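INFO  loader      accepted 1 record
INFO  loader      residues=102
INFO  predictor   begin
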Amino acid sequence: MKIEWLYEAQMEYKELLSYYKNTVGVQAARKFSEEILGTIGKLASFPEMGVLKSERLLGKYGFRALFIGKYVCIYRVDEDAVRIFHLADARSNYMYNIFGIS
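INFO  predictor   done
INFO  writer      dumping tokens
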């Protein structure tokens, strides 16, 4: 199955990568990138590896949450692709930041 990054997720990834590069260094940014892209890449073979909570907002609409270290990838499995909607810091109130709810 192919993996498709939506625009918002691409921008969030680029911001996080830039943050790592500017605050911690190029080597840390490279490690961050390898961890994020490597784990998300596994979704092509195992699209249901993320958490789906049917009673919650995410699960109600088919969204899954894949936790990667300190980050969470919000995605949905569609017929033709795994679509990445958001990449956020899991330590923050990412539901509020992504959907504007608490």
